[in-house]
UniProtKB/TrEMBL annotation:
It holds the Pfam family BPD_transp_1. Belongs to the binding-protein-dependent transport system permease family. This is ABC transmembrane type-1 domain-containing protein. One of its GO terms (biological process) is transmembrane transport. The keyword Transmembrane applies. Gene3D superfamilies: MetI-like. It is a multi-pass membrane protein. The chain crosses the membrane at residues 7-25, 89-109, 121-148, 168-191, 226-247, 279-301.
């Protein structure tokens, strides 16, 4: 296991370095104007020496102890990014565990009801959840709550901004929808694979109860396959986080990251893109750390559930 964790850390460092190198690409460009001074085209040509100077310019204040710089309110970018990330973690962490627990439970239910009439509320709802964009579920839930509020059935709800507990709860639900269906499908497939294993047929022949087979043997062995998808769940959570925070005006890390990246699309003085490397680097660091932690959780879970892997890797 230690070897795998070491490789994971090396991969994370390499990926982060590559992202920073892409962030620090030189952005100077030549603007072509028409006879009346109107914009015609922008021409860009990569320069290795300019790229090196860009990297040096980025690292110099960090090595001098000045950090990544400050925003217009004189807040350090790194500190502000961490503060906003903590706000987003109020959504990500609960959604992560809800997705896993509810997804595994839904997958077990789908497996147990794969035959018969209850399949309609089992497998078919999972397939529906995977087929329909989660944005549809979000809009449907919001419209339902608004309708109930208009009818006076539910009052006092505030579904927007980051300062309301109900907004946090609803955003956690929004985040959990698609990962839950995804893990339900993964769990169902894992249990289906285990169901055809030789040890299951042998246990059935010996009269072992179906309850014990499912929850003690099949699910335990299938969890190793399920936890392999931890990284994918976190990636789904992070990608949906940008949509949900923007849609509900929940001003967390994804919201501000989007704001900084949006500013980078503007051309200032016809020279280069106005990109704030310090802010984007700070938010990128925290987002990639979350992905790293998901990978570590996956490796530890596999080692715990599959002891032979732990022993084989030292």
């Amino acid at each position: 296991m230690r070897t795998r964790i070491g490789k994971l850390l090396i991969q994370w460092v390499a990926a982060f370095v590559v992202l920073m190198l892409l962030l620090l690409l030189p952005r100077d460009m030549e603007i072509e104007s028409g006879p009346s001074g109107e914009f015609v085209a922008a021409h860009y040509q990569y320069s290795f020496s300019a790229h090196v100077e860009s990297v040096k310019g980025f690292l110099a204040p960090i090595l001098n102890g000045e950090g990544l710089g400050n925003d217009r309110y004189n807040r350090p970018f790194f500190g502000h990014a961490w503060e906003m990330m903590q706000r987003s973690l109020w959504l990500i962490i609960p959604a992560f565990f809800i997705s896993i627990l509810a997804g595994v439970a839904k997958g077990v239910f789908d497996f147990r009801t794969r035959h018969g009439k209850r399949k309609v509320v089992g497998l078919q709802t999972t397939w529906l959840g995977l087929s329909v964009p989660d944005l549809v579920f979000i809009v449907f839930i919001q419209m339902t709550l608004m309708y109930l509020n208009m009818k006076g059935i539910i009052t006092g709800l505030s579904l927007y901004s980051a300062g309301n507990p109900e907004a946090v709860v609803m955003n956690v639900i929004y985040l959990s929808v698609f990962p839950m269906f995804y893990l339900a499908n993964v769990t169902f497939q894992a249990l289906s694979d285990e169901n055809g294993a030789e040890y299951i047929r042998t246990a059935r022949a010996k009269g072992v109860s179906s309850y014990k087979l499912l929850y003690i043997h099949m699910l335990r062995n299938g969890l190793a396959k399920i936890f392999v998808h931890t990284n994918t769940v976190v990636l789904y959570l992070l990608s949906n986080l940008f949509v949900i925070e923007y849609l509900t005006q929940y001003k967390g890390a994804a919201y501000y990251f989007k704001e900084y990246v949006t500013v980078s699309t503007r051309i200032v003085d016809g020279q280069s893109l106005n990109l704030n490397e310090g802010a984007i680097a700070a938010f990128t660091f925290f987002f990639t750390v979350l992905i790293l932690l998901a990978g570590l959780i996956s490796q530890v879970a596999r080692a715990y559930l599959l002891p032979h892997e732990r022993g084989g890797e030292g």
